[in-house]
Design a protein that fits this description.
Number of strands of chain B: 14
Oligomer: heterodimer
Order of helices and strands of chain A: EEEEEEEEEEEEEEHE
Shape of chain A: elongated
Order of helices and strands of chain B: EEEEHHEHEHEEEEEEEE
Radius of gyration of chain A: 27 Å
Number of helices of chain A: 1
Helix content of chain B: 10-25%
Radius of gyration of chain B: 27 Å
Strand order of the largest sheet of chain B: 5-14-10-6-9-8-7
């Protein structure tokens, strides 16, 4: 028995459907996926028993579905090709996630509150560094007192947070600072604990989870839509295959 | 003259002669792991290492009174957590390739894999920089983009950022010499920039090409020149966005800015298995590498990325 490992892989899964779309995590990038609904195997209507997907040969959200109809004249086949709620490739991208935000407002208040143009994704007690404010540019942007400095933060909403001194934890009072005009960046000092944040037990109710320096791998995920996954309680088998090579034979005739 | 034998009826037995020496492959310039601090996890411990740095104590003058001690100050810490991960690649060669193909396929493949490993790890560090280093934008240029082309004023802003963080220079001064047209080079920070920005770098007010350094001994292979307190290395591996217009990362770094971690003894391995190592008929051999590696920012105050577009 040869143990030589080529690129070809195959894997099978069995699950009981919850009736809702399901993200199936895979260890490899599949070429073919076949979903067989055992419960609906003899059903000639409603949920179909066989669903197929081919990489590069089907649109992202398509399921090629096959219904077997047993008639007195013998077996015949119906093919359907729904364009929604079928298979969707939902691979994650590898690399590192950046936690940066662009500033849309900075308050002159105690505490100073920063509003970002989009959800920042930060946690309270993380630290940020503010850049691209100040006056050493053609059009002054204001708030130069916080430019280039590090702060710990208290998250207020998905797009706002207030600033604190990273060592003392005292709120930053920006009432007398130069008024914000435009622009500015927030750079999360990613994967760092706030300086004055107490050492938190991992067993605490809401433990502080510092981000780590870790290179994210590409996760291979296929979303099986409601057309594919069947009804709640349906027994489903999934066959997944990756080939060593798909030989392109061209137009043979 | 009909009896003359020509190649028309008596040609070469082969169509061509294969030159055994393979042509030179293009080799990318690795610049991201040149200036970091190397750390090694001892084996049989963990894949994660934590670093701690104390923040400076408050140094405002404290006059002691005769009858009491000053209030004690708590030490503030800064913790970093880094998890190493395994990277790798493998190539399988069939015996027939080794028997039939004229070139030294295995040796060239081993060299190719070695290059691939260094490029891969260079990209890992590049991606950590891209995701984690504070960014400032070029704003003083004239190309009309929200992020403008490189200007000396913007380069000075990046230097000012590092100076505000009390960043140590990474290169000592290069002394001048008596050679005509050369001069000394200031102690400087390193900057990693994309090769496509060479015309923009050359256009900076303070630019001096490496050819005009007082000494060539300390010039790096990928070094392009210097501008006052910055020495520029260039590579096509440096991050550039896919946006339109493309935004280029120019990362300025001083000492103790970033580092990389490996695991002792098995940090990087080239693994070459001979024919038959994993099959019954001795027809396949494998070649590959694995590398335990992680890159991290040690102090965000000592590294900053200046974003720019092209002029």
């Amino acid at each position: 028995m040869s143990g030589l490992q080529f690129q070809g892989r195959q894997e099978a899964f069995r699950l009981i459907s919850g009736g809702a779309a399901y993200n199936l995590a895979l260890n490899f990038q599949p070429d073919v996926m076949e979903v067989i609904n055992i419960t609906q195997w003899t059903n000639t209507a409603a949920n179909l028993p066989i669903h197929m997907w081919f990489r590069d040969d089907t649109a992202a959200a398509e399921a090629y579905q096959m219904q077997v109809i047993d008639s007195s004249a013998g077996a015949s086949f119906n093919f359907l090709n729904p364009t929604t709620n079928g298979f969707t490739v939902a691979d994650t991208s590898g690399g590192n996630t950046a936690y940066r935000a662009l500033i849309s407002a900075v308050s002159q208040a105690d505490p100073c509150v920063i509003t970002t143009t989009a959800a920042h994704g930060y946690q309270t007690n993380q630290m940020v560094k503010i850049t691209d404010l100040g006056s050493d540019m053609p059009t002054a942007r204001g708030m130069e007192q916080i430019d280039g400095k590090r702060f710990s933060i208290t998250v207020l909403t998905a797009t706002t947070f207030s600033l604190q001194d990273p060592i003392t934890g005292v709120d930053i009072d920006s009432s007398a600072y130069t008024a914000w005009v435009s622009g500015g960046r927030v750079n999360l000092e990613t994967r760092a604990n706030a300086l004055n944040y107490p050492q938190q037990s991992p067993y605490a109710t809401t433990p502080y989870v510092p981000n780590k320096f870790q290179y994210d791998s590409i996760d291979r995920i296929m979303t099986l839509g409601t057309e594919v996954i069947g009804d709640d309680g349906d027994v489903v088998r999934i066959h997944v295959c990756k080939f060593d090579l798909i030989t392109e034979l061209g137009d043979i005739g | 003259m009909g009896s003359i034998t020509t190649t028309a009826q008596y040609g070469s037995m082969t169509d061509a002669w294969a030159h055994r020496a393979l042509l030179q492959r293009s080799k990318p310039d690795h610049v991201h792991n040149l200036f970091g601090k190397a750390f090694s996890l001892p084996s049989k411990n963990s894949d994660t290492v934590t670093f701690r740095r104390q923040e400076n104590l408050n140094s405002d003058p404290v006059v002691l009174s005769e009858d009491s001690d000053p209030a004690p100050e708590q030490i503030q810490k800064f913790d970093i957590s880094v998890t190493t991960q395994e990277f790798g690649k493998v190539v399988l060669l069939g015996r027939k390739v080794l028997l039939v193909v004229e070139d030294d396929t295995a040796a060239e493949t081993a060299d190719n894999l070695n290059q691939c490993m260094h490029t891969m790890l260079d990209k890992v560090t590049r991606d950590v920089w891209d995701s984690s280093v504070s960014q400032i934008s070029c704003l003083n240029g004239a190309n009309g983009n929200a992020i403008t082309e490189l200007t000396q004023a913007d380069v000075d802003r990046a230097i000012a950022y590092l100076d505000a963080g009390e960043t140590e220079k990474t290169t000592p001064m290069i002394e001048g010499s008596s050679r005509f047209g050369t001069g000394p080079v200031e102690a400087a920070f390193w900057v990693a920039a994309h090769k496509k920005l060479k015309p923009d770098i050359r256009a900076l007010d303070a630019f001096v090409p490496t050819a005009q350094y007082g000494s060539q001994e300390a010039v790096l292979m990928n070094e392009f020149g210097n501008t006052d307190e910055a020495r520029w290395v260039v590579s096509n591996l440096v991050q550039v966005s896919t946006a339109s217009p493309a935004v280029y990362n120019n990362t300025f770094m001083g000492a103790n800015a970033y580092g990389y971690v490996s695991i002792d003894e098995v940090a990087t391995e080239m693994i070459l298995k001979p024919l038959g190592a994993n099959d019954l008929l001795n027809r396949f051999q494998s070649m590959g590498f694995t590398a335990f590696f992680a890159a991290e920012i040690l102090d965000d105050s000592h590294i900053v990325t200046l974003l720019s577009t092209k002029a």
